[in-house]
UniProtKB/TrEMBL annotation, chain A:
It catalyses: (1S,2R)-1-C-(indol-3-yl)glycerol 3-phosphate + L-serine = D-glyceraldehyde 3-phosphate + L-tryptophan + H2O. Coiled coil: none annotated. Tetramer of two alpha and two beta chains. PANTHER family: TRYPTOPHAN SYNTHASE ALPHA CHAIN, CHLOROPLASTIC, TRYPTOPHAN SYNTHASE, ALPHA CHAIN. One of its GO terms (molecular function) is tryptophan synthase activity. InterPro entries: Aldolase_TIM, RibuloseP-bd_barrel, Trp_synthase_alpha_AS, Trp_synthase_suA. Belongs to the TrpA family. It comes from Geodermatophilus aquaeductus. The active site is at residues 49, 60. This is Tryptophan synthase alpha chain. Its EC number is 4.2.1.20. One of its GO terms (cellular component) is cytosol. The alpha subunit is responsible for the aldol cleavage of indoleglycerol phosphate to indole and glyceraldehyde 3-phosphate.
TrEMBL record, chain B:
Transmembrane segments: none annotated. It comes from Geodermatophilus aquaeductus. This is Tryptophan synthase beta chain. Its cofactor is pyridoxal 5'-phosphate. Residues 1-20, 418-458 are annotated as: Disordered. InterPro entries: Trp_synth_b_CS (IPR006653), Trp_synth_beta (IPR006654), Trp_synth_beta/beta-like (IPR023026), TrpB-like_PALP (IPR001926), TrpB-like_PALP_sf (IPR036052). Pfam families: PALP (PF00291). Keywords: Amino-acid biosynthesis, Aromatic amino acid biosynthesis, Lyase, Pyridoxal phosphate, Tryptophan biosynthesis. The beta subunit is responsible for the synthesis of L-tryptophan from indole and L-serine. Belongs to the TrpB family. Tetramer of two alpha and two beta chains.
């Protein structure tokens, strides 16, 4: 069975949403970023999205750009990412690689799939790859038993929601607001509407929500209607403000408590 | 007009629309859509509206009227015999896109996309710009059609093309200097995409070249092909034959596709794209994407790009802001791979030499971008004549060069390169000697010196 769906299903069985945390490899350096991912897991993350640094992160806001730029300049690549995959698996969470498409295409799609599977990775999330262009990745992920997570958006038509979720394995990523990554003061009601529309066509596939969640209260709000809560920018901010692994662990603890309570129920 | 009895079927007057891309925007393995799902609905809407519009007689009439009355089309073809003396004996015809309103070919595309913006009912346009010509053209069309306009421009480019920043602001556009990454065109495109995905409900992205996700490469080509459609007819009319080669500079590739498209079915006509060779392809400081790059994905499409082993985009370098881009439109990658077009690098020094020559021999100040095509013509002419081929029946070879823009915006850069103006004395760069005469062959023979502070300009 899909490792991502399995873990998110286990959270559901506990009556809660899963916590999915994102950090890029290589900020401020590879070892420190991997230590922070381990701390993220210790604090309670179920799944770690391991970010591949990329020179042109068109979907990311200023915070993530700021962390990724030095990693790109330092030459951090998929080899380092695979080390992070092993570390996250060893820490007890499910590792999934988050990558813009070109680094994977350059590495070789088949080679990436083989190496990711060998490192214990569950699969990959590809924010600028739509299933229509993913033929080679669909085949390679099938061959190596990897999950593949595509995105849906509030602007997706019902037909696209259906075809995209059909191509996903593990979960479907509901990018809840139109825009780039970054924390937002409020969770938009577009998120819940998108989740409802996606569930209608997703069958058993878990639906996780990302873009904008920054604290325990927002996590609780999203947990009320989604199978998983994805948090990126807020973690990256801990790295940028220098609180590092301790800051990341503390944020995980807050968010993990958040996904265990439901919105409106005080902690 | 020549008749088909005299000139065989290859010279028919209305060349067809290419059979590529396919319905999902693929030129062979190139092109497609590599964008976040959030943009797919907007791209689908654009594609659908464009497909309806491009065969709508009312639109075609409106577009043609704007091109005639506002842009000043058709642009003339000018023979440049004094310049051609430096092209080995070939004859050279210039397609004068520099004479268009706003000073370059960019207006052709922008008027089409602005009409499309109105058709889909959006009030705001955004654009990226490198040299500022596309930004100026977009700001112009927005003013004309009452749209609000925001232009993203790399901070580095706002400095080297300050004149165009002022023009855009005069036209009522908001210019946002981009300070991320290399602070040039590639980063301006990233920022424009980020704006678009956030404001897509109200905003249309007027893309400036034949790159980006489907439908931009095909749509921008269709709007720019007027250059070649006109030029093919004009050359046939005045010469009674087709040119031996058609040359154009290639940044993203819109002026090149614009002049190539009509000639693609004419197998006997060589299509030559000139890429920015910067300090030389061997130095790694260049923007010669097809010559020095490899296939990959950037800015929404698969195409050649300058990238490292990790798939990171490598920063490009060129004295010309409009060619300083590490990617290229997918149709060029396709034309290259099927062998229908060839792509060659031209260094900064070669381009500036050609720039000076055209100024001094013909009284035409070209855009530095276009000077790359002129330098390509100098070299190709010399090659063809040396090989004793290219022409027909003993006639000299006939070269058609797309003069994509005029050089007003480049006066500052050129003055520095050549050590002109009243600033502190600098050694003149390649292309002029100390008496400010244009030199011929200094670059190719290795005698040329680089402008003293040209490197910091580029
Ligand atoms: C005069 C001129 N020519 C050429 C270019 C390069 O663009 P493209 O390759 O799309 O024609 C530019 C871009 O700014 C330009 O201003």
């Amino acid at each position: 069975m899909s490792p991502l769906a399995h873990r998110i299903g286990a959270a559901r069985a506990e009556g809660r949403a899963a916590l999915v945390g994102y950090l890029p490899v290589g900020y401020p350096d590879v070892n420190t970023s991997i230590a922070a991912m381990t701390a993220m897991v210790e604090g309670g993350a179920d799944v770690v999205e391991i970010g591949v640094p990329y020179s042109d992160p068109g979907m990311d806001g200023p915070v993530i750009q700021q962390a990724v730029e030095p990693a790109v300049r330092a030459g951090v690549g998929l080899r380092d990412v695979l080390r992070a995959v092993e570390a996250v698996a060893a820490a007890g969470a499910v590792p999934a690689v988050m990558s813009y498409w070109n680094p994977i295409e350059r590495y070789g799609v088949e080679r990436f799939a083989a190496d990711l599977a060998a490192a214990g990775g569950a699969g990959a999330i590809t924010p600028d790859l739509i299933p229509d262009e993913a033929g080679e990745w669909l085949a390679a992920s099938e061959e190596h038993g990897l999950d593949r997570v595509f995105l849906v958006a509030p602007s997706s038509t019902d037909a696209r929601l259906a075809s995209t979720t059909a191509a996903c394995r593990g979960f479907v990523y509901a990018a809840s607001t139109m825009g780039v990554t970054g924390t937002r003061a409020t969770v938009s009601d577009a998120a819940e509407r998108l989740v409802v529309r996606t569930r209608a066509v997703a069958g058993d596939l878990p639906v996780c929500v990302g873009l904008g969640v920054s604290d325990g209260d927002q996590a609780a709000e999203v947990a009320a209607f989604a199978d998983g809560v994805i948090v990126g920018t807020a973690y990256v901010r801990r790295m940028l403000d220098g609180t590092g692994a301790d800051g990341v662990r503390a944020l995980s603890e807050e968010l993990a408590a958040g996904v265990r309570r439901r919105a409106g129920v005080p902690s | 007009m020549t008749t088909s009895a005299v000139h065989p079927p290859e010279e028919r007057l209305e060349p067809a629309r290419p059979t590529w891309p396919d319905a999902t925007g693929h030129f062979g393995v190139f092109g497609g859509r590599f964008v976040p799902e959030a943009l797919i609905a907007a791209l689908d809407e654009l594609t659908e509206a464009y497909e309806a519009m491009r065969v709508d007689p009312a639109f075609l009439a409106e577009f043609a009227a704007l091109q005639r009355d506002y842009t000043g089309r058709p642009s003339p073809v000018t023979e440049v015999p004094r310049f051609a003396e430096h092209c080995g004996g070939a004859r050279v015809l210039l397609k004068r896109e520099d004479l268009n309103h706003t000073g370059s070919h960019k207006i052709n595309n922008v008027l089409g996309q602005a009409l499309l913006t109105k058709r889909i009912g959006k009030q705001r346009v955004i654009a990226e710009t490198g040299a500022g010509q596309h930004g100026v053209a977009t700001a112009t069309a927005a003013a004309l059609m009452g749209l609000s306009c925001t232009v993203y421009m790399g901070e580095e480019d706002t400095r080297r093309q300050a004149l165009n920043v002022a023009r855009m602001r005069l036209l009522g556009a908001e210019v946002i200097p981009v300070t991320t990454g290399s602070r040039t065109l590639k980063d301006a495109i990233n920022e424009a995409f980020r704006d678009w995905v956030t404001n897509v409900e109200t905003t249309n992205y007027v893309f400036g070249t034949v790159a980006g996700p489907h439908p931009f490469p095909a749509m921008v080509r269709d709007f720019q092909r007027v250059i070649g459609d006109e030029a093919r007819g004009q050359v046939l009319e005045r010469e009674g034959r087709l040119p031996d080669a058609v040359l154009a500079c290639v940044g993203g590739g819109s002026n090149a596709i614009g002049i190539f498209t009509a000639f693609v079915p004419d197998d006997g006509v060589r299509l030559v794209g000139l890429e920015a060779g910067g300090d030389g392809v061997g130095t790694g400081r260049h923007a010669a994407t097809i010559t020095g790059g490899a296939p990959g994905v950037l800015h929404g499409a698969r195409s050649y790009l300058l990238q490292d082993d990790n798939g990171q985009t490598i920063e490009s370098h060129s004295i010309s802001a409009g060619l300083d881009y590490p990617g290229v439109g997918p149709e060029h990658s396709y034309l290259h791979d099927i062998g229908r077009a060839e792509y060659r690098p031209v260094t900064d020094a070669e381009a500036m030499e050609a720039f000076a020559l055209l100024c001094r021999t013909e009284g035409i100040i070209p855009a530095i971008e276009s000077a790359h095509a002129l330098a390509g013509a100098m070299r190709l002419g010399q090659e063809l004549v040396a090989q004793g081929d290219g022409g027909r029946g003993g006639e000299p070879p006939l070269l058609l060069v797309n003069l994509s823009g005029r050089g007003d915006k480049d006066v500052e850069t050129a003055s520095r390169w050549f050590g002109l103006g009243d600033r502190e004395h600098v050694e003149p760069g390649a292309g002029m000697d100390t008496d400010q005469q244009p030199t011929d062959g200094a670059v190719t023979s290795g005698d040329a010196v680089r402008g003293q502070d040209a490197g910091s300009q580029a």
